[in-house]
Amino acid sequence: MKACTVADPAATDAELASLAHHGDGDLVPGLVDLAVNVRSSGTPGWLAALIRDTDLAAYPDQRPAVEAISARHDRPSSEVLLTSGAAEAFVLLARALRPRRALVVHPQFTEPEAALRAAGHPVSRVVLPFPFILDPELVPASADLVFVGNPTNPTSVGHSRETIRALTRPGRILVVDEAFADCLPGERESLASEPDLTGIVVIRSLTKTWGLAGLRAGYVLAAPDVIAKLASTQPPWPVSAPALTACIATASTAALAETDAWARGLKEERAHLLARLAGLHSVRVVPDPSASFVLFDTGVPDIRIKLHARGFAVRRGETFPGLKAGWIRVAVRDVATSDQFALALGEVVGRA
Questions:
Q1: d(CA 68, CA 54)
Q2: Arithmetic mean of pLDDT, 286-304
Q3: With 0-12 CB in 10 A as exposed, 13-18 as middle and 19+ as buried, what is 199?
Q4: DSSP secondary structure letter of residue 138
Q5: Do the two domains 13-41+256-351 and 45-252 of this chain adopt the same fold?
Q6: Apex CA 94: angle with CA 226 and CA 215, to 5°?
Q7: Distance between CA 208 and CA 109 in Å, rounded?
Q8: In 10 A of CB 293, how many CB atoms?
Q9: Within 10 Å of residue 271's Cβ, how many Cβ atoms?
Q10: Of the chain's two ends, which shows fewer C-beta atoms within 10 Å, N or C?
Q11: pLDDT the model gives residue 53
Q12: 112-138 pLDDT per residue, tens
């Protein structure tokens, strides 16, 4: 399969429904959750306590949180915008910008394309083939608003900073979804600390690493003029006081050290899962995953249902452009859980 660029100004109802599908839609009560890629151990106790103790009587004051994020990335506060999770950032970009040709690199998180379409923008796609390695030359020069993930959801592919930078050009805004950037020890491929963010928008989320999906906390890093445009489309007090507390707390030196330790532990747990999957010769795994999940093709169209019968919920792949039924995304869990899952998967693919 070769990479292809598709100009698609319209989408069917079924395609729009697929773009709106997320991992929580694949959860099944009572089953082991491998569908949602949020930190499996939940919110750390110290962070949960700080959030619980937040004063809810006063209106939220964003300034301390903005300063904390600014210091964390060594950027001026004018280059920081706090958002209600990364999802709001995609909506703000779609509403505030007026691209001539918006383009999304797939397979990747579908919310950017959904937001663009909801705002009335035609969307082109670059669909990467297995193993989903990005070649900047595949993106047409005419694309003036480009979305890419790094590491990418659902492929778990981590692109180098140089590869991502190669997508920049005069007149283009490059949006990099870095919701999983802290899965890499040292965040080594992140653009969040780039000296000059002209033409670059970096989106970060507290959801995954800190187990805060229900809180809705994230932020955007971009040049001041872009931040001002996005802020102009936000309602008053767009980020809650508890979310602001989380932004401040997770930007501390101690929290960053904890994140790095978590990323190193994640790397070991991911390696164990990969070793177990390597023993299943009918399973095609995306190599060198970088995030808190692994993507692979089982070749079994009804794989999810068969895994349900064995106690596991996984994220379906066919709702991501470029993937078909039989592809599943599996969250990295502890060694025991991965062992149990590999045994169940082996039973299924062995009988396919």
A1: 17
A2: 97
A3: middle
A4: G
A5: no
A6: 85
A7: 14
A8: 29
A9: 12
A10: N
A11: 97
A12: 999 999 999 999 999 999 999 999 999
The CATH code for residues 45-252 is 3.40.640.10
Per-residue confidence band for 6, with pLDDT thresholds at 50, 70 and 90: low
Q: Letter for the amino acid at 175?
A: V
**Alpha-carbon distance 115 to 172, whole Å?**
19
The reported pLDDT for the residue numbered 16 is 79
At 281 the pLDDT is 85
**Superfamily (CATH) of domain 13-41+256-351:** Aspartate Aminotransferase, domain 1 (3.90.1150.10)
| 270 neighbors 289 (Cβ within 8 angstroms) | yes
**Does the model's pTM come out above 0.90?**
yes
Q: Which two tokens stand for residue 114?
A: 């959904």
Both tokens assigned to 272 = 């164990």
Per-residue pLDDT at 352 exceeds 90: no
Which region holds residue 70: left if phi is over 0, alpha if psi is between -120 and 50, else beta? alpha
106 class by beta-carbon count within 10 Å (0-12 exposed, 13-18 middle, 19+ buried)? buried
Residue 5 tokens read as 């660029």
Q: Domain segments of the chain: what residues?
A: 13-41+256-351, 45-252
Mean pLDDT value across residues 184-191: 93
Range list of H helices, 119-223: 161-165, 207-210
Per the document, the length of the chain is 352
